[in-house]
């Protein structure tokens, strides 16, 4: 049974910005890219009225993910630039260097996950959705979300412990 369509309310979008930002940060691995992604997504969504079926958060997360994928595809057509050590964001140079390194390593490890695992991890562990909500968002069953989430957590733990050289990890999922 499908929910009745309703207009996306801009005031309700604002309520979801922290969750959207956390999801974008986990997907992109960068504070600046996450902010840009959320801003671009909101600008596109609010440029014209939208009809939404179901809950607003699920719609917003799908739109965020689609914006990210579109941006990634278009960036593949642009020349790539390298980030030099002096060009690191000031936020990574200030404060506790150990914490900054740990946060960077975690974001890098999340970004390196296969897309299906990363999406499940971000939906449940970063955004805070239930398995059922994540399943609806990702269009899979709650059991599939649980399986992907378990595998994502295992890979992250191995990667962060430095034991990711498992030959079984290379097989296709």
Automatic annotation (TrEMBL):
InterPro entries: RNA_pol_sigma-70-like, RNA_pol_sigma-70_dom, RNA_pol_sigma70_r2, RNA_pol_sigma70_r4_t2, RNA_pol_sigma_r2, RNA_pol_sigma_r3/r4-like, WH-like_DNA-bd_sf. CDD domains: Sigma70_r4. Residues 14-75 form the RNA polymerase sigma-70 region domain. Keywords: Sigma factor, Transcription, Transcription regulation. Residues 105-156 form the RNA polymerase sigma factor 70 region 4 type domain. GO terms for molecular function: DNA binding; sigma factor activity. The keyword Transcription regulation applies. GO terms for biological process: DNA-templated transcription initiation. It holds the Pfam family Sigma70_r2. Signal peptide: none annotated. Belongs to the sigma-70 factor family. ECF subfamily. PANTHER family: RNA POLYMERASE ECF-TYPE SIGMA FACTO, RNA POLYMERASE SIGMA FACTOR RFAY-RELATED. This is Sigma-24 (FecI).
């Amino acid at each position: 049974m499908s929910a009745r369509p309703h207009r996306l309310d801009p005031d309700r979008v604002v309520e979801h910005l922290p969750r959207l930002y956390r999801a974008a940060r986990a997907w992109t691995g960068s504070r600046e890219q996450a902010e840009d992604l959320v801003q671009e997504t909101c600008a596109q969504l609010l440029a014209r009225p939208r009809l939404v079926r179901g809950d607003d958060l699920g719609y917003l997360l799908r739109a965020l993910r689609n914006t990210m994928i579109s941006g990634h595809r278009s960036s593949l057509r642009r020349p790539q630039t390298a980030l030099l050590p002096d060009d690191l964001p000031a936020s990574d140079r200030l404060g506790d260097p150990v914490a900054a390194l740990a946060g960077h390593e975690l974001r890098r490890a999340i970004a390196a996950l296969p897309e299906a695992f990363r999406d499940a991890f971000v939906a449940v562990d970063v955004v805070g959705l239930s398995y059922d909500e994540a399943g609806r968002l990702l269009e899979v069953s709650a059991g599939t979300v649980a399986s992907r989430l378990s595998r994502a957590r295992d890979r992250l733990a191995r990667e962060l412990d430095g034991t990711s050289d498992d030959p079984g990890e290379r097989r296709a999922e």
